[in-house]
Amino acid sequence: MTSNNSSWKPGNARVAVVMISLNEAHNMEAVLENLKGWAQEVFLVDSCSTDATVDIALQHGVHVVQRPFKGFGDQWNFALRELPIVAPYTMKLDPDERLTDELKASLRELTQRTASQGIVVNRRLWFMGKILPVNQEILRLWKTGSCKFTDVAVNEHPQVEGEMVLASGFLEHHDSPGLDHWVVKQNRYTTAEAVSQAMHKPLAVDPALFGNALQRRMWLKRYFWKFPGRYLILFLYHFLALGAWRAGKVGWIWSHLRTEVYRQWEYKRFEIEQTGRLPASIPSYPGEPDARVPFYE
Fold first, then answer.
1. Which of 11, 257, 269, 285 minimizes the number of CB atoms within 10 Å of its CB?
2. Spatial distance between the Cα atoms of 65 and 80, rounded to a whole number of angstroms
3. What is the value of pTM for the model shown?
4. Does CATH place domain 13-174 in 3.40.190.10?
């Protein structure tokens, strides 16, 4: 095992940014440029990428380690447990996300003066190169050492106790460089969800219709499949209720595709129950560990 000496130049925000990756070279240059001059520290837990992900990260002075991917919750809990984070606040960031200048300024101010345990950000979705009027408030920052992720294969959630505060500005989510990439990603996602559901694995939290936002989401995840006309309702929810219609044809396509994601999920679960077999795994093509960075079994 060879360790890498991080030379990331600390920025003006007291925040350690943590990312996980597998073949994210198409995003790494842009996301690291976005963080330059702002993040105090940047860490990457890579799952043995075969593209230039690690090369780009090391060139920017990111602290990189590698570890086989066993599930999103597992990988994030490893990162928070094992990385030598010094900054008083930790931020979860995906390589396809960017912080606006307003969000950077808001987070810099909040991490200097707030007593809150966590900071919620407003994430805005981009699709086919266009902003969709679809925003989501999500917890992305917390006091270092105060967070643990739900131990689930997909759709992991940070768990932080205490007061939360909402930052201003947007976290821009550039969801895949193209439809081919998006479809491949959703195919893997729906397979993982179908397997988890067919094997009766526990949800992230106990579902409750009148609970908090996450509990309501888990309630829908459990009972959505029983609703008559569910796919028409789901399309109308995305297109009309969320306001995707404002993006014209791009919004229509996105709403349709989001609906098809759930249909694939249901059909894959039905196939598992019908055949009694789990789907054959599609290789994600991780490579060999990179000798320049630490590797954990």
1. 285
2. 13
3. 0.85
4. no
